[in-house]
Amino acid sequence: MEAQKKKILLIDDNEIVRLMFSNVFWLHGLDDKYELNTVGTTDEAFVFIDNTSTRPDIIFTGLVMPFTKDGKKETSAEAGFSLLRRIKGDQATQSIRVVIFSGYNEEEYRAQAMSLGAEMYLQKGENMPQDLIQIIRSFDNS
């Protein structure tokens, strides 16, 4: 019997980042061990998160993204923080590991993300592909 693949969800509004993430998986042979889905919005993410058959084990999410608040579209870090609050505040989803995956390196953002339950805060940068592989593999050992 084949072992069930761990599910990973990437949430990022930048299509290039989503493609790069998918390519890193393919290039490093991780698609044999993990099921990767990518989405561009938190609304799309909750389609996966709320369904027990597609619920991810690990989420990589951008922080500053577009989202709907009070019926209006806006773009701010509140998109990532709201997502984190909802995941970590729900007993059914609180065990999902969440890695903030952001171009912003403000200590205020990092501190808030960690206080809300993020496992890590990864700044997007040159070493990003290697960092992603290392982080994903570290979750195998814990």
Textual characterization of the structure:
The two termini are 23 Å apart. It contains 5 helices and 7 strands. It has helices at 15-27, 42-49, 78-88, 107-115, 128-140; strands at 6-11, 34-39, 58-61, 65-69, 72-76, 97-102, 120-123. It has a single domain (8-140), classed as Response regulator (Rossmann fold, 3-Layer(aba) Sandwich), CATH 3.40.50.2300. The model has no long low-confidence stretch (mean pLDDT 87). The strands form 2 sheets. Strands 2-1-3-6-7 form a 5-stranded parallel β-sheet, with helices on both faces. A two-stranded antiparallel sheet has the order 4-5. It is 38% helix and 25% strand.
Our count of helices gives 5
- At the fold tier of CATH, the topology name is Rossmann fold
CATH architecture: 3-Layer(aba) Sandwich
Q: Tell me the series of helices and strands, N- to C-terminal.
A: EHEHEEEHEHEH
Keywords: Phosphoprotein
Pfam family, one: Response_reg
Protein name: Response regulatory domain-containing protein
Organism: Candidatus Nomurabacteria bacterium GW2011_GWB1_44_12
